[in-house]
Amino acid sequence: MSKGKLIVIEGVDGSGKETQSRLLHQYLLREKTPVLHLSYPRYEKESSALVKMYLRGDFGSDPDAISPYVSSTFFAADRYASYKTEYEAFYMDGGWVLADRFTTSNMIHQGGKIADLKERKEFLDWLVDYEYRLYEIPRPDVVFFLDLPPEISLERIRERSNKITKEKEKDIHESNRQHLFHAYEAACRIAGEQGWHRIDCMDGNRQRSVEEIHGEIVHHIKKLGGQDRV
Ligand SMILES: Nc1ncnc2c1ncn2[C@@H]1O[C@H](COP(=O)(O)OP(=O)(O)O)[C@@H](O)[C@H]1O
Ligand SMILES: Cc1cn([C@H]2C[C@H](O)[C@@H](COP(=O)(O)OP(=O)(O)O)O2)c(=O)[nH]c1=O
Predict the structure, then answer these.
(1) How far apart are CA 153 and CA 201, in angstroms?
(2) Which of 93, 94, 161, 173 is the most buried (most CB within 10 A)?
(3) CA of 101 to the centre of ligand 1 (A)
(4) How many CB atoms are located within 10 Å of the residue 69 CB?
């Protein structure tokens, strides 16, 4: 049996990842594809303890003051624990894994902290080595980047509760406008460099509907192959 597929939905906070990954999961289940739907960080698991401390501001409320190398290791450890305890056997046996965020989030949110492009490239090389080679976490087969301008995603998350405490107060990334803009800028650049599939969430000034975006993702999934049913 050959390995399955790892599909990642990426984008800045509020870009529609949860909405689209839920719809894609339902679609794959209807198509009888063996699929697990995962979301990172896994706030309810022990392995996310340091992620929660970081996002809550225990190490400081300015994300830029915390080294991206240090904070990436918190998120990577949670992904390692997830791989070993939740999906390694399933994936090695041909199962599909659909992830709302992945190493790609470290690339854009942590990489986005580094303005100098040469230094950012060094960080990205280090990160890929750390997560994919050292931890042996699988590399995604396809990454869908939901491209929504941060001005609009900020509107969408304005009223939303955070996922750690379920309270209205924002985590240190969400409450920092500059962080979101830097993550978006990094995502647009890295998407091109890494061959991610960019999904334009706007049609001119209009936000494309949930159904339109889902249709575009499914169109590409059908071309992914490796599974007769899809
Ligand atoms: N295409 C869309 N058009 C308008 N609103 C959307 C669209 N997709 C998602 N939303 C809304 O935007 C908010 C953020 O979406 P969500 O899927 O939670 O994003 P993320 O997981 O990227 O933070 C939610 O209130 C959701 O209902
Ligand atoms: C999974 C992951 C998330 N993050 C960041 C992105 C988010 O700003 C923050 C929390 O993720 P999340 O709760 O998924 O954000 P949202 O649902 O609002 O999109 O953690 C990383 O920096 N690295 C990672 O590996």
Answers:
(1) 11
(2) 173
(3) 14
(4) 14
For residue 176, the Cα-to-chain-centroid distance in whole angstroms is 18
Domain range annotation of the chain: 6-224
For position 164, what pLDDT does the model report? 67
Q: What are the residues facing 143 on neighbouring strands?
A: 8
pLDDT classification of 168: cutoffs 50, 70, 90: low
Pairing relationship of beta strands 202-203 and 206-207 according to DSSP bridges: antiparallel
- From the list 77, 31, 212, 216, the residue with the least C-alpha distance to 142 is 216
Mean pLDDT (the chain, rounded): 94
Q: Which option is the CATH number for 6-224: 3.40.50.300, 3.40.50.2000, 3.30.300.20, 3.40.50.970?
A: 3.40.50.300
- The residue whose CA is least distant from atom 4 of ligand 2 is 105
What are the residues facing 199 on neighbouring strands? 146
Segment 169-194 mean pLDDT = 94
How would DSSP label each residue in 124-186? HHHHHIIIIIIS-PPPPSEEEEEE--HHHHHHHHTTPPPTTT-SSSPPTTTT-HHHHHHHHHH
- Nearest ligand, CA 82: 2
Please work out whether the CB of residue 150 comes within 6 Å of at least one atom of ligand 1.
no
